[in-house]
Design goal:
The chain contains nine helices and four strands; from the N terminus they run E-H-E-H-H-E-H-E-H-H-H-H-H. Strands 2-1-3-4 form a four-stranded parallel β-sheet, sandwiched between helices. Helix 1 crosses helix 8. It starts with a strand and ends in a 15-residue tail after the last helix.
Amino acid sequence: MKIGYSVEGSTDRALIKGFVKRWCPHAETIEGKFRGSTRTSRRREIQHICGELASKSAEFIVFLTDSNTDDPDGWRSVLRQEGERLPAEYARYTVFGICQRNVECWLCADADWLSTKTLLPPEEFRMPNPKRAFELALGIQARDRKEEEISALVQEAPLHNWLHNRSFEDFYDKLWQKSKSFDDCQMENVRDAR
């Protein structure tokens, strides 16, 4: 199976790779490239990225981006805007994940569990924007983005505890529904673990 994806940065890429290793360990991943450096330019490139990934035989495409807003429902408007750019021919096998504020909010959604992995107090991760705390806890630097370590965390994480984050819950539900049509992916129902 080939899974195509498009992300904003290294932490997003690590999260996607962690999910793939967890649920589709034999899948090949293909990163879609976009020209530009802003969310607006990325949005304009959705059609191009889908075409590129489809030409490389991607059977499933995932877009992951941050909402970059404090509004608890702001991710929904970003989701709508991104979805409006998706050509109809790719809709049946494409999923958008929009993180409320940023991807670190998902990674820190279970502060108690993350605390056991980083040996830092859970309060360090219980804040509206835990990006800096997460980067400090993992030792993320410009030259060492710790993608393998982040991917490993995602593979182990008790994802049922992430479901209280509505943007993650939306993403998970869409992945779960799409995964039912793939024989090669054994995506667990994390709702059963609640």
